[in-house]
Each structure stands twice: as structure tokens, then as C-alpha cells.
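ok trying this again, last paste got cut off
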Amino acid sequence: MLQFITHHTDRYDEIAGTRAVLEGGCRWVQLRMKDTPAEEVLRIGREIEKLCREYGAKFILDDHVELVRELNADGVHLGKLDMPVAEARRLLGPEYLIGATANTFEDIERGAGQGADYIGLGPFRYTTTKKNLSPILGEEGYRRILRQMARAGIRLPVAAIGGITEEDVPQVMACGVNGIALSGAISRAGDIAAATARFTELVAAHRTIVTP
């Protein structure tokens, strides 16, 4: 599974970029608009939701639990400093997806215990997308944490994130993750649809486990 996280800057058109990503075959879009007024998130979110429905893609909001129902989103992704997963689950109920960001096995254990549906694990390497970067994991970090998950019987889907390039996909997928989440590697591409298609094909070709 390839997940696309929108890259919010004054120079990037989220709506046109998301359409290109969907045309390239991605079927999971996370709208990430940090430090943006709710009115702007709603304006952009309504258009992104329409596009996701048109292409049959999942539409996930970053952080804004309070806007999930209003935007008819499929769920929300929560960072380590956002609302606790347990509180979001209490507010949204069982019918919405809730993702949790993790950098350690303890983060995953906490998210799983509070009702998360999937984990965004990273960063793989340094990335300019995040302001407050957690310690870099690399391949060994992923393998170690996934082994800990297996021993603990935690079977949540895991998406690798953080500065991943096309060249990285084979080794990252070989670690045993379910998919890869990308932002700048796609949004900064000259041809967003073509870049998305290449990443989608690479993830599918190197998938070692079936994504639930």
C-alpha cells in the first residue's frame, strides 16, 4: 500500500497535486495542513474528499479529529503530540480509521492498546517535511521494532515513513512493513502522476506481506 501525505506550502497546489497522485494509482491520501486555520482545512478538505471518492481512495485527515465527520473522511492520523488515540477513539467510535505515529516499539504498544488501526513508523532517514524529527530508524531500526511487534503479538499494519526514495523501496519493504508513506518525494516531482505510478509499482513488486 502506498500512502500519500499532502505537502502544504504556498508553492504547492494540494488539490491539483492530489488529483495527479490519484491518477498515478495511489489509493490512500492523508491531508496534512499543520498550523493552518480550520476554515482553510475545511475548504481544501472538501475538494480532496471529492477527489478521493471519485477515485475510490481512502481519505485521512491529519490531526483534526473534530473535522473528520464534517469532511466525511475515513479517519484521522495522530502524531505523538496530538490528541491521544484513546480520546480520538472515544469521540469517533469504531467506524473510523485511526492511525498513530511511532518511533519506538513503546509508541506502537501504546497506540495498539488505545485502539489504533495502523502505525506510521519512522523516520527512515532525515526529512525536511517534519519540524520535530524523531531519532532516525534506518533498516535495522525497522527490523528490530517489527521483531518486537511479532513477539508481542501486535499485528497492526505498519507504513514506513521519512525521506524514502525510489531506490530505498526494495530494502524498506524487505524489512516487513505493509507499505510506505510519502510526501515530498512525490509532491516535489516534476511529473507527480508518473512518480506516484513508479512508487506504487515498486511497493507492489517488493511487498513481502499482504496488507490487510
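PB: full thing came through this time. The chain has a mean pLDDT of 94.
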